[in-house]
Design brief:
There is one protein chain. This protein is mainly α and 475 residues long. It has a domain of 155 residues. Helix content is 64%, strand content 0%. It is built from 18 helices and no strands. 37% of the residues are buried.
Length: 475
């Protein structure tokens, strides 16, 4: 946590020192475990089964029931040690993935991800229904569950930003979704017991995922964190859908049935989140970072469903010129309802920065690096939409949805132009290349105020190059 804190305090040199120190400490722990193995390396040991002799005598209460409870609590404490190690590795994974972009850091990412994947397997990604008798036991179980699901999310986020498969597959996860924030944040056992007694038990991950794709009825509401986990799951599903499609179909296009299935899942995900007060869209501007991040990924999912920009989105060990060159080589998109829908989502992503201030929002607590990662594809899809809809002579003419989205984009960009110190309203026009360049410049301006992570600066440089290329007709 101190390593991440250094990044947010713009102390990157001290953060690097803390990163190296933490990495070395964890590596030493793994080495010591390896030395204790009698027959070669077996990885991180599974949770310890604690015997009666290992529990201090003064901690053992009289009576067989209390005696058993003490043994269970001690076993939970031993198992939770591995969870804390996973939490430490999670923070290192965040710093390694979003911080310095270099070959050395790429090796760190590979090592950390391998260790995390190993721990996830050994700790287990499944659980069974059980009645926990105490607040303390429930906290440990819920914390372990949230840790594993957060690691799944960072694996998917890395897949989003680097075009590599996630280290954890959807089919492996048999965990219950996280509880509501009110239950998690209960200040004491009495408050928790009251909330817990009145709360509905969250669905299992795989049950909720199945309902998103196959249910014809309303999806039960889940917590904001549960919704965050599920939108990552949908994005991973889209990632593998594209991989399978590229093998089975030379055009690399998913079937109509597959596209409709994911679209229905996205609509059900949105409906499920709208039922939850934590994720209410009416308070989206002032809501928690986890909610705004989920909405950003929801918008990205519509874009990913339409187009797989593949290696062009890899933000590791690349410079802006390589990314732009790969974007130029992508097949051009044609007018269709899915492009219009994706463009509408990308346009809507510009509204919160405009409402809160394009120079301010990057410093707000509900703004995160997720928006920066998504902004590259927001810009790309809008440039493609503008290329096929903003010409003076359109054949066939624009339909109502296309016209509505195009007018919305023009209005948003005009408002952004008014906010810029060097904005030129007199020179504003509606040529496709000009508007696409303005989209890229708008996002680059927003990201200019976000100086925490190096990956954000890389995206900003790419956006500036995109603006230069689109204005002269090169993208």
């Amino acid at each position: 946590m101190a390593t991440v804190g250094c990044q947010y305090c713009l102390e990157s040199r001290e953060g690097q020192r803390m990163f190296d120190l933490t990495r070395d400490v964890i590596s030493e722990k793994f080495d010591r475990r390896q030395m204790r193995c009698n027959s070669g390396y077996r990885g991180w040991e599974p949770p310890v089964q604690v015997s009666e002799d290992q529990v201090p005598r003064e901690q053992l209460s009289s009576g067989p029931q209390n005696h058993t409870l003490q043994l269970v609590k001690c076993q939970e404490c031993h198992a939770y040690t591995s969870i804390e190690t996973m939490q430490a590795l999670f923070y290192l994974m965040v710093v390694a993935s979003l911080g310095e972009v270099s070959q050395g850091r790429s090796r760190d990412i590979a090592t950390i991800q391998s260790l995390l994947a190993l721990l996830m397997q050994q700790q287990g990604l499944s659980e069974h229904a059980c009645s926990l008798c105490s607040w303390e036991s429930w906290i440990r179980h819920e914390s372990a569950r949230r840790t594993k699901l957060a690691i799944f999310c960072i694996f998917v986020l890395r897949s989003i930003s680097t075009n590599v498969p996630s280290a954890t597959l959807l089919a492996d996860i048999r965990l219950q979704l996280p509880c509501q924030a009110a239950e998690w944040q209960a200040p004491n056992a009495e408050s928790w017991e009251m909330i817990h007694r009145e709360s509905e038990r969250p669905l299992m991950f795989h049950d909720h995922f199945g309902l998103l794709f196959h249910s014809d009825t309303d999806i039960p509401a889940c917590s904001a964190l549960g919704g965050h986990v599920m939108i990552h799951a949908i994005l991973q599903h889209i990632f593998y859908l594209h991989q399978v499609t590229q093998i089975n179909d030379l055009r690399g296009q998913a079937s109509v049935e597959q596209l409709l299935s994911v679209q229905r899942a996205l609509k059900r995900w949105r409906s499920s989140c709208e039922q939850d007060t934590e994720s209410s869209r009416s308070t989206i501007v002032q809501s928690e970072p986890i909610v705004t991040n989920s909405v950003a990924l929801y918008r990205l999912a519509y874009i990913r469903l339409l187009v797989n920009i593949g290696p062009a989105r890899s933000l590791i060990e690349q410079d802006e010129k390589i990314i732009i060159d790969r974007l130029k080589r992508l097949p051009r998109l044609s007018r269709n309802p899915l492009l219009t829908m994706a463009a509408r989502q990308a346009m809507a992503a510009l509204l919160p920065p405009l409402e809160q201030g394009i120079f301010l929002i990057g410093q707000e607590r509900n703004w995160s690096v997720v928006h920066a990662i998504c902004s590259l594809e927001y810009t790309y899809i809008l440039s493609e939409f503008l290329r096929v809809t903003a010409a003076q002579e359109m054949s066939p003419p624009l339909d109502a949805d296309e016209y509505d989205v195009l007018a919305g984009i023009q209005e948003v960009l005009l408002e952004v132009e008014k906010c810029l110190p060097n904005g030129n309203l007199a020179g504003f026009h509606n040529a496709p290349g000009f508007l696409a360049a303005k989209v890229a410049l708008a996002w680059a301006t927003i990201l200019q105020c976000v100086r925490t992570w190096e990956v954000v600066d890389l995206v900003r440089r790419v956006l500036l190059k995109m603006a230069e290329s689109t204005e002269i007709g090169g993208l």
